[in-house]
Amino acid sequence: MNPLTVFAIALGGALGAVSRWRLDILVRRAVTALAARHRLHGHRDSDDPVRRPAALPLLGIGIVNILGSLLLGAAIRALDPGAELARALIVTGFLGGFTTFSTAVMDCWNLWRAGRRGPALALLLGVWALSLAALSLGAALAGALVRP
After folding, report:
1. Which residue has the higher pLDDT, 41 or 139?
2. Which ranges does the record mark as transmembrane (predicted)?
3. Per-residue pLDDT reduced to its tens digit, 53-87
4. Is 96 labelled a binding residue?
5. What is the DSSP string of the chain?
């Protein structure tokens, strides 16, 4: 394997993993802030300690994987098939490090074990279905923009 390709994958993977981590934190903070604001306006359902944590994995890692799938569809369609280094950096490296279905599956498993069957199934089926739709949308958008 070409050392430059290995470096591109490693660099992209590192940047993707850090981006995933930051986006997940930002989403979790936004959800927490919205829940706090919701409580300030007298809504009691956001105080339910069982309901609130279930939204966090659904939103944080779910958004990461759906966005990553959208970007993957666009990248696969937009990048020239011969651009091996760009594909290694962006597709295998960055988007491989950015998306993390293993974390979504772990969140699903934890919800299931906690008796939260509905949120667990919503995470499992929803993230996968929305990620597939996002990938298709990304490919279609890139196809329309790159190859008229």
Report:
1. 139
2. 54-76, 88-112, 118-146
3. 445 556 788 888 899 999 999 998 999 888 999 99
4. yes
5. --HHHHHHHHHHHHHHHHHHHHHHHHHHHHHHHHHHHHHHTT-SGGG-TTHHHHHHHHHHHHHHHHHHHHHHHHHHHHS-TT-HHHHIIIIIIIIHHH--HHHHHHHHHHHHHTT-HHHHHHHHHHHHHHHHHHHHHHHHHHHHHH--
Residue 98 identity: F
138 in a known ligand binding site: no
Tokens of 9: 């994958």
Which own/partner pairs from 140-144 qualify as long-range (CB within 8 Å, at least 24 positions apart)?
140/73, 140/77, 141/73, 141/74, 142/73, 142/74, 142/75, 142/76, 142/77, 142/78, 143/77
What pLDDT, on the 0 to 100 scale, is given for residue 48? 46
Full-model pTM: 0.76
